[in-house]
Each structure stands twice: as structure tokens, then as C-alpha cells.
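Possible regression after last week's pipeline update?

I re-ran a chain I had predicted before the update to compare outputs. Posting the input and the new output here so someone can diff against the archived version. Not blocking, just want to make sure nothing changed silently.
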Amino acid sequence: MMNNKTKKRENRLHVMNIKMSEKMNGVGPFIVKRNTVGSNLT
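New output (post-update):
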């Protein structure tokens, strides 16, 4: 019982970490694209 609870908590943290890294991966290229577009315009 105790082991199962800790396992679930670890799994939830793992999922949160994956979502955060996915968000950062999605935001990173977007910022780079915006910067390159801005420099191309000026």
C-alpha cells in the first residue's frame, strides 16, 4: 500500500517534468524564430 502511493507520486512528478520540458522545447524555438524574424525586418 505504502509503496504504491510513493510510486504514484513519483510518476506524477515525472509527468510534470515531461510536460515542463515539452513546454520549454515548444517555447524555445518560438523565441528563436521571433528573434530571427525581427532581425530580418530591421
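Follow-up from reviewer: compared with the archived run. The helical segments are 2-41. Marking as no regression found.
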